[in-house]
# Entry
Amino acid sequence: QVQLQESGPGLVKPSGTLSLTCSVSGDSIISTDWWTWVRQSPGKGLEWIGEIYHSGATNYNPSLKSRVTISVDKSNNQFSLKVSSVTAADTAVYYCGKVGTTGSYVEHWGQGVLVSVSS
Amino acid sequence: QSALTQPASVSGSPGQSITISCTGTSSDVGGYNYVSWYQQHPGKAPKLMIYDVTNRPSGVSIRFSGSKSGNTASLTISGLQAEDEADYYCSSYTSSGTRVFGGGTQLTVL
# Structure
């Protein structure tokens, strides 16, 4: 059974960079699947951030593309998210996930981690 | 990309059936059979309930079913149970190669 666990600072200062890591167990990051990040602002809906394939190919939400980088660390079976120039609007629970075989859905989700942007 | 349109809330009594709609465009919902649905209980991570419009993952109750007509997808829950009370989100692949979620629907079991 695939398990995903997000980790990273719970508090980031405005204008700083948010950095999170997703550790994958029960599966290999170099399997033939995509890996994704989704966030949820307090009391709001889900927002797709982007996804990465083990080759390094990425797709990003156009509204976040200029500030987001997703990367993969094959040696540690992890993938990461960086969001630069953060503001209070980036305060959210961030989820990592494994995309299903047709590439269109999130099959497995991490438990999520709350990141607050505040001075 | 604009979020898919879902009703903010729906309700039903135990044993009844309800349907949640998810409206997009020909560039997302209408253009591909790549609509998925997620259930989210308060404080929990979303859970996949339906993928590729009509498919149910292993372990998901047969009371949950999905369909699509034109630019609108639907999630139907039959035989409503108290444990079905949650938020539900749809998602679709888009012509830009990205993904988009709906705004979410709060289901209340009366």
